[in-house]
Amino acid sequence: MAAPQRLSDFVDGERLWARHMALATFGARADGGVDRPTLSPQEAQARAQMIAWGRAIGLEPFTDKAANLFLRLEGRDPSLAPVVAGSHIDSQPTGGKFDGVFGVLAALETAAAIVARGEQPLRPFEIVAWTNEEGSRFAPGMTGSDLFTGTKALEAVLPIRDADGISIGEAVASILAADDKVPLRAFGLPIAAYVEPHIEQASVLEEAGIPIGIVSGIQGTRRYRIRVMGEAAHAGTALRKDRRDALMAAVRMIRAIDEAAMEPADTLLTVGMLQVTPNAPSVVPAEVFFSIDLRHPDNAVVDRVDAAIRRIVEEMKGNCSVELKQIQHSPSLNFAPAIRSAIAEAAAARGIPAMDVYSAAGHDARQLHYICPAGMIFVPCRGGVSHNPDEWAEPEHLTAGAQVLADVVWHLANSA
User: Is pLDDT at 249 greater than 80 in this prediction?
Assistant: First the structure.
């Protein structure tokens, strides 16, 4: 007698790859990358394609006031909380074809496998594409999952504007208006479990020759915006002792903050944005605006450097004034052991090598972790390169990740 087929036996790797290439045409860059800002016309096109693929296999689309997109496969008992899997489809301006998209398409492939198998799970299964994970157009990121889980309030988020002055509220309204008969749901739908597949965005799996990463947790992060205000003056006549030079004050701050974050050696500190006003060669800078991104797995380290940052900006401001705003604080976390075990067991059952890894980058699974059992599946990406047109994942690794996801979802969706 033949062994019963696993759901993963119905995963179609060629279809999964073809859909990655198809979604990459929405916002395609000449260099092979993807520029698909959140809540943009390009994302609306990708969203419409996802809805069309879902409807073709009987999935029902839903959205909410954050424009999160859900595709629902009904369970035998619709009253039960669904199992949810997915990620995001927005990209960085110089993004690749796989970041976020793999999680959404692996979840869609899981639904397609369930339909092909012809058996309905006990619980509903939902695919999700979260809004504004990247935070490149509207800062900070994770907007959709923050609003869904109640971490942030709608009225605090909708007024946030992009560089062109367009608000999140206006952008969401445009996306929802473009949807074709997609019902609106309230935030906070109860979820039985959440699983997010993703490319690793690091090289641990590739160097180990392992196709599946069982993500143990996500490191803590704090993000800041700092504004230093001085006074514009003539570069040839204003004496140094009289100047209120915002850039010199900012440089002192950045150097001291960098030194404060040197220990331990794996502390990550990034000043990725620096804006100088008026930015003219013969004018003493009147204002400087810069960002700080601080990360470490140990919350105590993050908290210690946070205290140093707050002290340093005051000590180094000189005769300028300074405003510090923390825009995000996400403590380190460990994912649910039950989800991690389910991923390990699914990989082992298919004979796919797997190992534990830790996520240095943030993901929507962080927000979901606080409302339901959550976990992540990583697959390798070449050279660890991501947020880059050269981002690349091998088709066989994407297929393996989708196979593991399918069996994990089937297990979770048939658990009472």
Answer: yes
